[in-house]
Amino acid sequence: MESTPDLALERLHELARGVRDAVVLDAEGRLLAGSEDLAEPAAALMRATDSAAVEIADPRGAVYGVRSGGRAIVAVVDPPSLPSLMLYDLRAILDGLPEPRAA
Predict the structure, then answer these.
(1) Residue 50 pLDDT > 60, yes or no?
(2) How far apart are CA 83 and CA 31, in angstroms?
(3) Is the pTM of this model over 0.85?
(4) Which of 16, 54, 70, 71 could form an SS bridge with 27, CB 3.0 to 4.6 Å?
(5) Whole-number Å distance between alpha carbons of 63 and 40
(6) Do 27 and 71 form a contact (C-beta atoms < 8 A)?
């Protein structure tokens, strides 16, 4: 069965404890799955860097973002979280999605 952005977020919630919210975005930052409230801040975060992975943390929690294959996944996570494990899970979930079709 082929994965979808919605199924990818379900998988994220199964794998990673403490995920408060998450989104999957296309290459232009449009929402493919997840919270509409998080979509624009997540897109702005990913536009702010050329990096393949982003981590922002403080005592209240963390935001992790990963981009690959023309998409990005961004998650807001409660503390404590292990950055290397979160980034690994996000990459694995994103890489499990089929390549976007050319328009």
Answers:
(1) yes
(2) 24
(3) yes
(4) 70
(5) 14
(6) yes
